[in-house]
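As the work plan foresaw, the team has encoded backbone shapes as discrete tokens. One protein thus recorded appears below exactly as we store it.

:::
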Amino acid sequence: MAEKLKTSDPFIILDVREPWEVERVHLSDPRLACRPMSRIANEGLKALPEGARSLEAEIYVICHQGVRSAQVAMWLAARGWKHVFSVAGGIDEYARKIDKKLGRY
């Protein structure tokens, strides 16, 4: 995802962590949409940001360590999304290996 962030390509970073997690550590990118997994579980597809509702949308799902993002990515793929990816290792690995200024929790 680090290389993807350097581009101006249209895609969505879907952060499925809870609000308190996002407050502690977050990416700064206009393509970021925060939708907690708990909200997605309650509201289903209605919880997705408008740009992510197209089955053709390119979506990178991120969480703390990659478990929730993998679940949401699989859920979307099972519903027909063609370009959905789970960010392996989540924000924690991104902070450890790519952007050490982010901090960790």
Q: What stands out?
A: The longest strand covers residues 58-62. Residues 2-97 form a domain with the Oxidized Rhodanese; domain 1 fold (CATH 3.40.250.10).
